[in-house]
Amino acid sequence: MPMLTTLGVAALLLILERMLKLFDFVVNQGGPVEVVFRMLANLTPHYMGLALPVGLLLGVLVAFRNISLSSEYDAITSSGTSLMQLVRPLLMLALLLATINTILVGWVQPYSQYAYRGLVFDLRSGALGASIRVGDFVEIGDDITLMIEESRQQGAELGGIFLERRSEGNSISVTAERGGFFATGDDQTILLRLFNGVLVDLNESQNKPRVLTFERQDLTIRLPEREVFRERGGQELELTLPELFVEKDNPENSIEERAAFTGNFHWRIMHSLSFFILPFLAIPMGLTNKRTGRSTGIVIGLALLIVYNELMEGMETAVKGGVSPYLSIWALFAAFAFISFFLFRVAAFKAGGEPLAYVDAVVSTVAGPIKRLGKRIAGIGDRA
Questions:
Q1: Is 234 exposed, middle or buried, given 0-12, 13-18 or 19+ CB atoms closer than 10 A?
Q2: What is the chain's mean pLDDT, rounded?
Q3: For the chain, what percent of residues have pLDDT higher than 70?
């Protein structure tokens, strides 16, 4: 439960933070609001890939912290069960999460990343039906200028409409009390239906304009031609794991492209293998002294994971610059594994081993004078 709770909260926070930016982007592009949720759906696999390691680390850490504070850990180890035996079910859980993560980063994320970028392209090109801003003069296809005073139900109900259509030697101006946009059988055209309005036809060949009043008028507007979004691929984030394996050694790609494919391929493999290291880091970070009950392990464990992820992204960038993945990505992975196994060894095989004992001692040393200073200030305030 701690792992599932942490996973859900972490993914929700990441999605909410991104949602605000997407709302701002979609509104500025004049697109429909429901596009935001389609974009978030395509970004969810990416955020799940970020939340899974955090969920596993904090889930195991909090679980061992709870049994440590309640003396359950002492009872378990006193019965003859070693820490090596306790880690076995966690490794099975890590195997499950690593499998899920491999599917996410290897196959789901490339397709969702491509779909997300396709939505961004369609939004910028107007293919998603950009909304008309109320009170603004907007240029739409076929040299048409449109301004509306009210808009409801995503353009189905418009009020206070002004429209001007221009062509060589001819101009048609229309005002209408109300109207609305309706789809047609052709993707390149849209129907604007107007009610209770006036049409003014200005033609250079005529001495005076023609003025018509109408109760209902249908105008067909041809939308501008839009480009077709590119095919998936060409970028490392849009390639599946097998495709990356092939493209990283493809001689038809440039040296820079092969380096980018190589770095991303090794990063994905490393990201999945890291799940088998996290339990060995989380357990010693979770075991705490019952007398103090400090939460130092949570802070240090999260800090190590964040630094590790940030450095790993830097190592991937270094591979793109020509550095060997074995001297960058896998060297950092080995260092992270060494630190985790060392802390676990102290907790598992050293009598009374507390990996965070030195850290707690430093915290006590620093916190002691601060507490005494706070009490002095409080005492001076009471006397005053």
A1: exposed
A2: 82
A3: 82
From the list 278, 240, 251, 255, the residue with the least C-alpha distance to 90 is 278
Which helix (H) or strand (E) is 147 found in, with range?
strand 144-152
**Long-range CB contacts (within 8 A, 24+) of 347-354:** 347/83, 347/283, 347/284, 347/287, 348/82, 348/83, 348/84, 354/287, 354/289
Cα distances (Å, whole numbers) of residue 256 to 6, 249, 283: 38, 12, 41
Q: How far apart are CA 98 and CA 92, in angstroms?
A: 10
Q: Hey, how many other C-beta atoms are within 10 angstroms of the C-beta on 182?
A: 12
**How many CA atoms are closer than 13 Å to the CA of 45, on its beta-carbon side?**
21
Higher pLDDT, 176 or 223: 176
| Other residues' Cβ atoms within 10 Å of the Cβ of residue 331 | 13
- Cβ contacts of 207 within 8 Å, gap of 6 or more: none
Residues with Cβ < 8 Å from 167, sequence gap 6 or more?
143
Give the tens place of pLDDT for each residue, 263-322.
999 999 999 999 999 999 999 998 877 666 667 788 888 889 999 999 999 999 999 999
Where exactly are the structural domains of the chain? Answer: 2-124+236-353, 138-222
Q: Are 86 and 282 in contact (CB under 8 A)?
A: no
Count CB neighbours of 340 within 10 A: 24
Question: What is the DSSP track for 66-126?
Answer: HHHHTTHHHHHHHTT--HHHHHHHHHHHHHHHHHHHHHIIIIIHHHHHHHHHHHHHHHHHT
Q: pTM above the 0.70 mark?
A: yes
Tell me the backbone φ, ψ of residue 376, rounded to 5 degrees.
-65, -45
The residue type at 45: P
Question: Within 10 A of 353 (CB to CB), how many other CB atoms are there?
Answer: 16
Look at phi and psi of residue 380 and say left if phi exceeds 0, alpha if psi is from -120 to 50, else beta.
alpha
